[in-house]
Amino acid sequence: MQTPRSDETAARQGWMGLLARADAETLNRLMPAPLAAHSLLRGPEIGAVMVQGRTGGTGDAFNIGEMTVTRCSLQLPGGEVGHAVVQGRSADHARRAALVDALMQTEAAAGLRLHVLDPLAHAEAARARRRAAKAAATQVEFFTLLRGEDA
Amino acid sequence: MYVAVKGGERAIDNAHAFLAEERRGDPAMPDLSVGQIAGQLKLAVNRVMAEGSLYDPGLAALAIKQARGDMVEAVFLIRAYRTTLPRFGSTVPVETGQMACIRRISATFKDLPGGQILGPTFDYTHRLLDFKLAAEGGMPAAPEAPSRPGPVPHVTALLDRDGLIQRETDSGTPAPDLTRDPLHLPASRALRLQALARADEGFTLALAYSTQRGYGRTHAFVGELRIGMVRVSLDLPELGFAVEIAEIELSECETVNQFTGSKTEPPQFTRGYGLAFGQNERKSLAMSLVDRALRWRELGEENIGAPAQDEEFVLMHSDNVQATGFLEHIKLPHYVDFQSELELIRRLRAEAAK
């Protein structure tokens, strides 16, 4: 189920994941109200999903604990359906993520890519890069002291 | 025995008002915001998320504020809230091998692919109180260095390659869930790990320490401890594929344990595993030691009767919400119980005096 069936699916997985991981405030700022016309099919509703890990990292699945998520499904007047399941408890976040998912199936896609998805991707990459750079600065460089027998 | 009694309502209302005032503290001091707790008491928040078994930093911070910093009370609040949420499903098991690590250390190999990354750690600090923190202000800045992109493989995978460590393979068994089905013993390792992931940190720490002191010794080395962000995916049936729904912080610890072999297993290294929400190093480390101690049966080891080997003892007493619920109920009115005991003692004394 995880294997992308096509480039189209992979692209959709890409933007849905980006929207779900995005900061709710940033998404709200990039997509201020009023939002494009749509009708809600489900939600936005807050719930939980059970997060699973694997014994020893690679073995049998086990439950670590739950996390809060908000999901939303909606439809555009043209019939395109958008879905979102996003981290946390923000209805605005889920609704906007579902709306972008629907609009990405329309001619609005290029504009959204430029004005919403690209800024989100840049923000996420910058955040990850800063964390990685700070971690990298704490990497241990071992050196061996001159030992007696080497002298 | 419980008997319905009326009264005390005014006292209870006033007690709760008193509690609210005490929680707020000195009105001359600024109120503590949930954002401040989430940002500056992050390890407390992580502990409440792990033991409350719900990943939501904002809610955990609110619970800590409401509980006046009482961690078990905060965990209780989160567990209660959790029961109000509909469950949308279970995620695809997270790939901790893909973790964006901010900390990653091994006590078994000095030079390993990906390197030893200390991250934001208390290790090597001198544990001297820093009075500068008591004064306001100051924004410390961490140095940065170019990060080397590339895989950060699990240390145990290196041993696995040489066949020196017991292999962890997926049997395809669906994860049992103790939040849906009552705990039955003996429990599978997956069920034990779920219980340990939400277990009280203090209890888990004490049990792990007991194994180090000889009560079920398992000679643990920290093969690897890693902390960082992991992406979480969920299968969406309406679409027919999985999408990433979140990025969460996890702490993972893998111990490598000496094992001289048994009737069923050849001499090799064995593993203990710990995984917990958030930056939760002590918990994941303790969890991996207890996990390994509990595996005596499947590895054909001797049960020496150590507490950490006793699955029932560990699993039935590790949950602090259950424990505190039963412990604290004895402070509630037991007037009738006690009255009967009092009468019994009086009668026995009267009979003895005859």
Side-by-side strand order of the widest sheet of chain A: 1-2-3
Helix content of chain A: 40-55%
Distance between the termini of chain B: 32 Å
Q: Which residues of chain B form runs of ≥5 with pLDDT under 50?
A: none
Count of β-strands of chain B? 6
- Class by helix and strand content of chain A? alpha+beta
Number of H- or I-type helical stretches of chain B: 12
Total domain count of chain B: 3
Total count of domains of chain A? 1
User: Uncertain regions of chain A: pLDDT < 50 for 5+ in a row?
Assistant: none
Structural class of chain B: alpha+beta
User: What oligomeric arrangement do these chains adopt?
Assistant: heterodimer
Shape of chain B: globular
Termini distance of chain A?
A: 62 Å
Q: What percentage of the residues of chain B does DSSP assign to strands (E)?
A: 15-25%
Dominant shape of chain A: elongated
Helical fraction of chain B: 25-40%
Name the biggest interface.
A-B, 58 and 88 residues
If you had to describe this structure to a student in words, what would you say it looks like?
The complex is a heterodimer of chains A (151) and B (354). Chain A has 151 residues and is of the alpha+beta class. Chain A has one domain. Helix content of chain A is 42%, strand content 25%. Chain A contains 4 helices and 3 strands. In chain A, strands 1-2-3 form a 3-stranded antiparallel β-sheet. In chain A, a hairpin with a 6-residue loop joins strand 1 and strand 2. In chain A, helix 2 packs across helix 3. The radius of gyration of chain A is 21 Å and the shape is elongated. The model of chain A has no long low-confidence stretch (mean pLDDT 91). Chain B is α+β, with helices and mostly antiparallel strands and 354 residues long. Chain B folds into 3 domains: 74 residues, no CATH class; 182 residues, no CATH class; 36 residues, no CATH class. Chain B is 38% helix and 15% strand. Chain B is built from 12 helices and 6 strands. Chain B has a 4-stranded antiparallel β-sheet with strand order 3-4-5-6. In chain B, helix 3 crosses helix 4, helix 7 runs antiparallel to helix 9 and helix 8 crosses helix 9. The radius of gyration of chain B is 25 Å and the shape is globular. The two termini of chain B are 32 Å apart. The model of chain B has no long low-confidence stretch (mean pLDDT 92). The chains are: A alpha+beta (151), B alpha+beta (354). Chains A and B meet through helix 1, strand 1, strand 2, strand 3 and helix 4 of A and helix 3, strand 1, strand 2, strand 3 and helix 7 of B.
